[in-house]
Amino acid sequence: MKKKSSPLYNVILALVYIFMYAPLLVMVFFSFNESKSTSVFTGFSFKWYVELFSNSDIMEALRNTLVLAVLSSLIATVIGTIAAYGIYRTRNNFVSSSFMTVTNIPMMNPDIVTGVSLMLLFVFVGRLIGANTSLNFFTLLIAHITFNIPYVILNVLPKLRQTDVRLYEAALDLGCTPRQAFFNVMMPAINPGIVSGLLMSFTLSLDDFVISYYTSSGFQTLPIKIFSMTKRIVKPDMYALSSIIFVTILLLLITINILQMKGEAKPAKK
Fold first, then answer.
1. Are 95 and 123 in contact (CB under 8 A)?
2. Considering only CA atoms, which of 20, 142, 9, 23 is closest in space to residue 72?
3. Fewer CB in a 10 Å sphere around the end CB: N or C, the chain?
């Protein structure tokens, strides 16, 4: 028998969602405002979106963000998938648990702790090798790969554990090398987890500010650019930019959830 939720529970749930999403909806609404007013809607217009895409500084920051997000998510997905497979093949429970604990630490750490520690590491290594500048695009890329890898591992590892190990062993018995068995048998089974980890890494890299702020020097991403814009008068073109980022991340998260639901549905059918 299905239990009915109490009216108070529904009211609290509705208030929570209104509190979470009302500011975002207001921002999207005023991004289409014809005037500069942030409190009075004078008319519907795409003026601020046109001005946004004609701003060379913002377009450069967008290009930097996309290049960084694509590279870091791809590299983190490859490394994270290999690491997840290594943890999966580890037979010692203590060693496996230790690896998972180490994997969870970067996720539990506050971003500012991760950002400052990586900055100190890059500066220290830069001084050792005598580099003119310790922080650049490559340090930023390494930082993004570092905090993306745990999310890839946690997306791929459950798919590996759901896979029937007898299929892998059967492939080996039929003459496949371990490499062939992995790519021909294991990969199709864990593809939803790999894609979910890739999209999650891309999303996290796209909107990261704190770690990027401490590990970059002169290489501006969109979050850093938006932060610098807020130091001056806030114009509605920043609303337009934030609205585009919000919609992009929302679509990516919906895609991730759909892929996870499909991945969970396949073992249930079997």
1. no
2. 142
3. N
Whether the CB-CB separation of 216 and 135 falls below 8 Å is answered with yes
Query: CA nearest 142: which of 197, 216, 194?
Result: 216
Q: Distance between CA atoms of 23 and 29, rounded to whole angstroms?
A: 10
φ, ψ of residue 128 to 5 degrees: the values are -65, -40
DSSP string, the chain: -PPPPPHHHHHHHHHHHHHHHHHHHHHHHHTTBSSS-SS----B--HHHHHHHT-HHHHHHHHHHHHHHHHHHHHHHHHHHHHHHHHHH---HHHHHHHHHHHHHHHHS-HHHHHHHHHHHHHHHHHHHT-S-S-SHHHHHHHHHHHHHHHHHHHHHHHHHHS-HHHHHHHHHTT--HHHHIIIIIHHHHHHHHHHHHHHHHHHHHT--HHHHHH-SS---HHHHHHHHTTSPPPHHHHHHHHHHHHHHHHHHHHHHHHHHHHHHHHHH-
Cα gap 81→192, rounded to integer Å: 12
Span 173-216, pLDDT tens digits: 888 888 888 788 888 888 888 888 898 898 889 888 889 988 88
Residue with structure tokens 């005023």? 30
Only one residue has tokens 């585009």, namely 244
pLDDT tens, 20-47? 888 888 888 888 888 777 677 788 888 8
d(C-alpha 177, C-alpha 172), whole Å: 6
Q: Please choose, from the candidates 234, 233, 211, the residue with its C-alpha nearest in 3D space to the C-alpha of residue 224.
A: 211
